[in-house]
Amino acid sequence: MFHYHVPTVLTGRLGDAHGLHHHPDLMAYSASNIWPADRTWIAFTHFDLHGTKVAGPTPLIEALLNAPGLEALRLPWKP
Fold first, then answer.
1. 16-33 tens-digit pLDDT
2. Which end of the chain has fewer CB atoms within 10 angstroms, the N or the C?
3. Neighbours of 31 (CB within 10 A)
């Protein structure tokens, strides 16, 4: 088994998320799911994806889509 198959949950401040890339409990992998305590949004990435998916309230998604210097697109949604 590779290390990414071992569930690891870390807590902290969003501003400290960059440091998780070198956290010893994550071995060679970065954090794959980040969400706030109120769970109003989630950011998901995987080591072999070419991007990150974000789900959350409409204002957050609109801000990401309109952010200069950020390449973002809206994926089709089927409930």
1. 777 766 666 666 566 678
2. C
3. 18
Cβ atoms 41, 33 nearer than 8 A: no
What's at 12, amino acid-wise? G
- Specify whether the CB–CB gap between 33 and 43 falls below 8 A: yes
3-state SS of 33-68 is EECCCCCCCEEECCCCCCCCEEECCHHHHHHHHHCC
Distance, in Å, from the CA atom of 27 to the CA atom of 25, rounded to the nearest integer, reads 6
Give pLDDT tens digits for 39-70: 999 988 876 667 889 999 999 999 999 999 99
45, two tokens: 């990435």
